[in-house]
Every structure is written in structure tokens, then in C-alpha cells.
């Protein structure tokens, strides 16, 4: 079963997408299940994980409502205020389809925010609820996530978009490589093969992204890699089928069992789908 482990829906009139400025004008419109369905069907994608795009409980409720009506959506990664009463918030949005929580760490100026005592308490509540943490991070956060994993070894963590390597002159960088190796040493951390077209920019493709794919494959193994589209953000850089085709080509020399993990098995296991 081919699973897209990272996609979004949004409805602009809801009004809590603070990041939607003119820099993302091409995708500043509604994207809902009917928009993704033909793209997924054309590529044989049978299931997905729907990920938050706004830091609000209301958006998480909105996504859970969509998921209830959309058979393709197998799980939702939502949002809570980790510095608030996490247990109460989790109780308010408790749902069989809620699989994880994602703070928008890339938008928080304080790199070590995730290590604040109150935030760690909130993440412990996430762990107790049987949920995972999606880490929307950049290379500046890798040390903090390393420390987080050591502090909360029972909390499953999924690194979104391979931690957004910076691609200086096309290379992801020694610091990124070392940081990802440190994260891979924690068995509860998995890595999402998503978002890289946008991070690389014009000229992305199999040859350009092979160094990142090769490194995360060697570090995490196929059993901790999971494919996601990052659609519709992907629309800023490429097309759904092109991204899937590129990642399939990168994995083409792997055993069938490893490909099955990356394109579905890991997502089922990590998100308990």
C-alpha cells in the first residue's frame, strides 16, 4: 500500500495560516480532498497522513473532520500549545485518527524552545497519549532534537523534510550530515523523505538529491525512512507525479522489501495506521 506520509489541506477563509504571504501566492487558495484525489489515484497512492499547517486547535479539529470524511486519510498530525495544559488540549481533540503533534519549530526564533521545561512536560503528555512528534526543523535544530530524544527516549519523533538541508552549492553540508547521524543513533527517530524539491530549488531532481537520499538511507535504514509529498507546498517547485517518480528512481536499486518500507511500511508502523 503506497502511503503519502506528508500532505496538507487548508481552507483560506479559516484565517489562521499566518505564513501564507505573497511568497507563496501560487498556493494561497483552498486545497481540499477533491484536489488531491485525482493526483493520488493517478500515482496509485492509496493512503495519506494529513499534517497541520496552522498553529491552532481549531485547525486540528478541521483536519480531523476532513479525515473522517476522506477514506484516503489514514491519520492526522495536529497541533497543541505545548506550553499550555497539554493533557487538557489532547483530551479536547482526542480522536482515533489523531496520530501525532507538530509544533512549527522552524517559525520559532528560539532554537532551543523544544527543550524548555514546560514544553518537555507537554511532550511527555504527548507520549502518554500514544502520539508522536513531527519535528519541522532546519539544521539549526539538530542538536536540540538530539537532546530531546535523549531526554524523552519513549517519544517517537519524525523529522520532516530531512531537516531541510541548506544545499550550499548543491551540497547538504557536513554539519547537516553529522547532525542527522546523531539523530539516527536514537532508535525512536524516523526521517521523512519529503520537501526536498522546495529546499533544493530550481534544478532539483534525482542527481541533485542523491547525496541527501544516500545519507539518510545509510543513517536511518529503509525501516526508518518514509516518503511524503508535502503537497500542495510541492506545487511551488514541482508536480506530485514528478516527485514520486524521482524518489522511486532514487530507491530503485534497493530490495523490494526496502522500497515497500519507504513507500508505506514505515508510515504504517511509525504512525500506527
Any overview of this molecule?
With 273 residues, the chain is of the alpha/beta class. It has a single domain, classed as TIM Barrel (Alpha-Beta Barrel), CATH 3.20.20.140. The chain is 40% helix and 14% strand. The chain is built from 10 helices and 8 strands. The protein has helices spanning 33-43, 57-68, 86-92, 117-128, 142-151, 174-184, 196-200, 206-220, 240-250, 256-270, and strands at residues 2-7, 45-51, 73-78, 98-101, 132-135, 157-159, 189-193, 225-227. Strands 1-2-3-4-5-6-7-8 form an 8-stranded parallel β-sheet. Strand 1, helix 1 (33-43) and strand 2 form a beta-alpha-beta unit. Helix 6 runs parallel beside helix 8. The longest helix is centred in the last third of the chain and has 15 residues, at 206-220. The chain is globular. The chain starts with a strand and ends with a helix.
